[in-house]
Design goal:
The complex is a heterodimer of chains A (250) and B (430). Chain A is an alpha/beta fold and 250 residues long. Helix content of chain A is 41%, strand content 25%. In chain A, helix 4 packs across helix 6 and helix 6 runs parallel beside helix 7. Chain B folds into two domains: 262 residues, no CATH class; 56 residues, no CATH class. In chain B, the strands form two sheets. Chain B has a ten-stranded mixed sheet with strand order 2-1-5-7-9-11-13-15-17-19. A nine-stranded mixed sheet of chain B has the order 3-4-6-8-10-12-14-16-18. Classes of the chains: A alpha/beta (250), B alpha/beta (430).
Chain lengths: 250, 430
């Protein structure tokens, strides 16, 4: 579903991704772990199409199509979703207005009709209830004044509402309390499907005990330095990244 | 020695000739005449203000006003009936007070249609009561307005529906319109005033409109002014506000039209503990130029003033905000805050922000700020990552940026109508 080939990216002339190669199959949950500053968020931004990063080499294929040349909104319409590590506050934009604009923009690009207002409200409420997001929060401006955990839940709400096929989650677990973590993990698990894949970026084994991954990849200094099964996550939890840092230096 | 004869520009000479013609047309009335004479003498001495006059630094009228268009003729009494004024304000239900080419329409009929406690009249005297008679634009307005239309809200009356002063340029060729309105709001009375300015596109119309609003003690007024003039219009306007004890006034200026516009506000605190709110929404594109210059004069203690001006500037347009808060020596406990924020949507767009404080009292709280920048790329990316195309994402952010200046309006209906004007500009842009 998602295939990243020898991806190099830099910002202001500073190389950050130095040859990332990674494939995620339909139905797969892949986890990426790695030390701070290793380039995990950068990878997620490049996949989603943030244009401050310059891709100097490599490809990102979604369903076999190179998406590097197209705008972020078109990538979203093709079924790509990024849950941000730091969701942004947008003052003056009502959450519901935003959700509807986003959903309808995606539908329009796919040649679908606008959602009926009643259906829209019903869908949002259904997902919000599952994620423990109050109606009052939905009435506020997007993410404005939300706690860290509330913002993360709002990302998952969007994911559940838009029903993307390729979901990239950047540290969705950080800042969540134990209950919220479980709720969010359930939200993700409920979306697991044969034709949907996840790329879950995290620092903690804890999330991966709720969302059990099929594959685990270790990123260090802008590269995937090791890949394995779920057991790799426990290994990292016990030993840390010291070994991999040494490998990169070598 | 004789004083040197100033070299007059073509426009200055034409304005003086227009005055001579108007003087012959108007009935000889001593009361109005001396004010006109004095105003014209003021103008003759100073000429059109230029860049070395601080208040006109960014809008050099000597340079910009190349031709003074001929004075519009007085329209026939019924001319206004064919025009539907203020349609752009949507379904706002208001008492319409229509001015065509600066002249009040249906003056007689209007008196009986206005709600109880509201009276309308006309006086020959155009001497300003609040505005500064030494200002050249005010002086021209005094000299060339045919009369002052007066609107009075009697003491204690709460006017329910807004009063809508709808100014319409009915022009097929370049023409100039001058008008003066004076609104007096009695003690404890309250009213919402809408003031709209409309005109045809593609015709170089000119206007110089003076509005004075005097709020007596404990009076409340919300004033919303919409500039929806044509795309070639040259619009000068002056607003004088005076606040009595504990009076509460809001004036919001929304700019949608005109090739060149300059709106000046002089707000005077004439009573203690009054509250003033001045807001602005500016939407500029093409090669347009819009200047808002204001002075808030705290002459009495305990006053509060808040200014929030939001401007978006696209293409090669040019916006100016000059704001000055004066706190006079015994205006202790004054609380004044002024903010002007601009969004530049293109490389060639420009904004000049000049906020100033002049404080002569020691126990005051005053501050000002000004920002100017592009749309936040991180916010744009967030919206785009959710499937919203760039243009639409920009529109969402611009809408929320401008919308902040509408928040203090007490009427939801009015806020929505003005929001609709912002939306229409955004649609035009996309
Ligand atoms: N806009 C930027 N300007 C300059 N440097 C940047 C920018 N964005 C990222 N970097 C640098 O790129 C490197 C990778 O950052 P990135 O955020 O991708 O790391 P990460 O693996 O997500 O880290 P963390 O685990 O702390 O979230 C860091 O050294 C960071 O400082
Ligand atoms: Mg990160």
């Amino acid at each position: 579903m998602l295939e990243i080939r020898n991806l190099h990216a830099e910002i202001d002339g500073k190389p950050i991704l130095k040859g990332v190669t990674l494939a995620v199959k339909p139905g797969e949950v892949a986890a990426i772990m790695g030390p701070n500053g290793s380039g995990k968020s950068t990878l997620s931004y490049v996949i989603a199409g943030k244009d401050e990063y310059e891709v100097t080499k490599g490809e990102v294929l979604l369903d076999g199509e190179n998406i590097l040349g197209i705008d972020p909104d078109q990538r979203a319409a093709k079924g790509l979703f990024l849950a941000f590590q730091y969701p942004l506050e947008i003052p003056g934009v009502a959450t519901m207005t935003f959700l509807k604009a986003a959903l309808n923009a995606q539908r329009k690009k796919r040649g679908e009709e606008e959602i009926a207002p009643a259906d829209f409200i019903r869908s949002v409420n259904r997902v919000a209830d599952k994620l423990g997001i109050s109606r009052e929060m939905l009435r506020r401006a997007l993410n404005v004044g939300f706690s860290g955990g509330e913002k993360k839940r709002m990302e998952i709400l969007q994911m559940a509402l838009f029903e993307p096929r390729m979901c990239v989650l950047d540290e969705t677990d950080s800042g969540l309390d134990i209950d919220a973590l479980r709720i969010v993990a359930e939200g993700v698990n409920a979306l697991r499907a044969k034709d949907r894949a996840f790329l879950v970026i995290t620092h903690y084994q804890r999330l991966l005990s709720h969302i059990v991954p099929d594959t685990v990849h270790v990123m260090a200094d802008g590269r995937i330095v090791k890949s394995g099964g779920p057991e790799l996550a426990s290994e990292l939890e016990a030993k840390g990244y010291a070994d991999f840092a040494a490998q990169t230096a070598a | 020695m004789t004083a040197p004869t100033p070299i007059r520009t073509k426009a200055e000479t034409a304005l003086m000739a227009q005055y001579e013609a108007l003087r012959r047309e108007l009935p000889k009335q001593a009361a109005g005449q001396s004010a006109r004479e004095a105003a014209m003498a003021t103008f003759a001495a100073s000429g059109l203000p230029h860049r070395r006059i601080e208040a006109y630094h960014y809008t050099d009228l000597r340079n910009l006003l190349r031709e003074a268009a001929p004075l519009a003729h007085r329209p026939s009494a019924t001319a206004g009936s064919s025009v539907e004024a203020g349609r752009f304000l949507g379904d706002i239900d208001a008492h319409e007070i229509i001015f065509v080419n600066g002249s009040l329409m249906h003056a007689e009929g209007l008196a009986s249609q206005l709600p109880k406690g509201v009276s309308i009249g006309m006086v020959a005297d155009t001497a300003p009561g609040i505005l500064d008679g030494n200002d050249a634009v005010v002086a021209l307005n005094t000299a060339l307005s045919r009369e002052t239309v007066t609107l009075e809200i009697a003491q204690g009356v709460a006017v329910e529906r807004p009063l809508h002063l709808a100014f319409i340029q009915d022009a097929g060729a370049p023409q100039a319109v001058f008008a003066r309105v004076c609104v007096r709001i009695g003690e404890g009375a309250s009213v919402t005033l809408l003031e709209s300015h409309e005109g045809p596109n593609a015709i170089a119309t000119q206007s110089n409109i003076g509005v004075e609003i005097a709020a007596a003690d404990d009076a409340r007024v919300e004033h919303v002014r919409v500039n929806a003039e044509g795309d070639k219009a040259f619009s000068l306007s002056s607003l004088g506000l005076s606040l009595g004890h504990r009076a509460c006034a809001l004036s919001l200026n929304l700019i949608l039209g005109s090739a060149i516009s300059r709106h000046q506000i002089l707000a005077r605190f004439a009573g203690a503990e009054a509250k003033l709110r001045l807001d602005g929404v500016g939407m500029l594109d093409g090669g347009r130029h819009a200047d808002v210059t204001l002075v808030v004069d705290h002459a009495m203690p305990g006053g509060e003033s808040r200014e929030l001006f939001k401007t978006v500037v696209d293409d090669r347009a040019n916006a100016i905000f000059q704001g000055k808060i004066i706190v006079r020596p015994h205006a202790q406990k004054t609380d004044g805050k002024m903010m002007s924020a601009a969004l530049l949507l293109s490389e060639d767009a420009s904004m000049s922000n000049k906020p100033e404080l002049e404080i002569f009292a020691d126990d005051v709280q005053c501050g000002h700020g000004a920002t100017c920048g592009a749309l936040d790329e991180n916010l744009l990316f967030y919206l785009m990552a959710r499937g919203i195309p760039r243009r639409e994402a920009q529109a969402i952010l611009i809408r929320s940026f401008l919308g902040e200046a509408l928040e203090e309006l007490s009427s939801d209906e009015l806020r929505e109508a003005l929001g609709g004007l912002i939306d229409s500009w955004l649609v035009r842009r996309s």
